[in-house]
């Protein structure tokens, strides 16, 4: 039985909760166990994943995959660029350095309308579900190559 850690960013909470709803529905449908933690925003996601992974090395809960869920909407400053770049870089470094399954489940959009178009379950375009599916596919690939 696989176990996933969902790391949810608290910023843009309503949008992220909709992504979470889609991801959880999918994981429950296929019988995958999951835990969930919340961090302040997308920037903090890699740090939280790193903490969870380090904890597993010391006897804590071990996860087969990590599913970060967040949303970053472009504003009037270049803060958007830093958050998007650094969260992606942090996630990729963790994934490559430690052979971790981490799907980049952070929406990076120009405005709230684009975010909702990608998050709403009712329109059939919920990226949360897609992120959960991608996570499971990567876990299968990791198993195929016998990486532990």
TrEMBL record:
Residues binding (2S)-2-hydroxy-3-oxobutyl phosphate, per UniProt: 76-77, 118
A single MF term (Gene Ontology): 6,7-dimethyl-8-ribityllumazine synthase activity
PANTHER family: 6,7-DIMETHYL-8-RIBITYLLUMAZINE SYNTHASE, 6,7-DIMETHYL-8-RIBITYLLUMAZINE SYNTHASE DMRL SYNTHASE LUMAZINE SYNTHASE
Keywords: Riboflavin biosynthesis, Transferase
Reactions performed catalytically: (2S)-2-hydroxy-3-oxobutyl phosphate + 5-amino-6-(D-ribitylamino)uracil = 6,7-dimethyl-8-(1-D-ribityl)lumazine + phosphate + 2 H2O + H(+)
EC number(s) per entry: 2.5.1.78
Organism lineage string: Bacteria, Pseudomonadati, Pseudomonadota, Alphaproteobacteria, Rhodospirillales
Organism: Candidatus Endolissoclinum faulkneri L5
Family: Belongs to the DMRL synthase family.
Binding-site residues, 5-amino-6-(D-ribitylamino)uracil: 11, 42-44, 71-73, 104
Catalytic EC class: transferase
Protein name listed in UniProt: 6,7-dimethyl-8-ribityllumazine synthase
């Amino acid at each position: 039985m696989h176990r996933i850690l969902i790391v949810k960013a608290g910023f843009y909470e309503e949008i992220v909760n909709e992504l979470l709803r889609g991801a959880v529905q999918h994981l429950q449908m296929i019988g995958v166990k999951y835990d969930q933690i919340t961090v302040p925003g997308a920037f903090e996601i890699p740090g939280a994943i790193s903490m969870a992974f380090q904890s597993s090395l010391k006897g804590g809960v071990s996860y087969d995959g990590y599913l970060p869920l967040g949303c970053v909407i472009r504003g009037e400053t270049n803060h958007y660029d830093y958050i998007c770049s650094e969260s992606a870089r942090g996630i990729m470094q963790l994934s490559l350095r430690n052979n971790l399954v981490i799907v980049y489940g952070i929406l990076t959009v120009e405005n709230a309308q684009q975010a909702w178009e990608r998050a709403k379950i009712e329109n059939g375009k919920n990226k949360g579900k897609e992120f959960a599916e991608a996570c499971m596919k990567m876990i299968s690939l990791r198993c195929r190559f016998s990486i532990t």
